[in-house]
TrEMBL record:
It comes from Anaerohalosphaera lusitana. This is DUF2958 domain-containing protein. InterPro entries: DUF2958. Pfam families: DUF2958. It comes from the Bacteria.
Length: 102
């Protein structure tokens, strides 16, 4: 599965564009289908050689309340869960404020 489509690349908020927003929108969600990790993508920018840097909230069994931070697309593409499954994009995700993401 392609994690980023051309449409997502065009419409994803740029890094720091929601920095002053109290409850930023989360337009994109990635997850491991065979584990408990979820990346709620808030913003992103393309870096060199087609890689992307995302600002996101990561939620997992290790940190159920979640933690804000950065992740690169190339890192997400390398991750495999315990059964060897790659990270997927939630095809049914609808953008919502971060406070509404569970």
């Amino acid at each position: 599965m392609k994690l980023l489509t051309e449409e997502i690349k065009r419409t994803l908020p740029k890094l720091y564009s929601q920095e002053e927003v109290t409850d930023p929108m989360v337009p994109l969600k990635f997850f491991t289908p065979d584990s408990s990790f979820t990346w709620l993508i808030i913003e992103g920018d393309e870096e060199s050689e087609g890689d992307w840097l995302f600002f996101c909230k990561v939620v997992s069994h290790l940190c159920p309340e979640g933690e804000l931070g950065y992740v690169r697309l190339s890192d997400l593409e390398e991750i495999r869960g315990p059964l060897g499954l790659p990270v997927e994009r939630d095809l049914y995700w609808e953008a919502k404020p971060l406070s509404k993401c569970k």
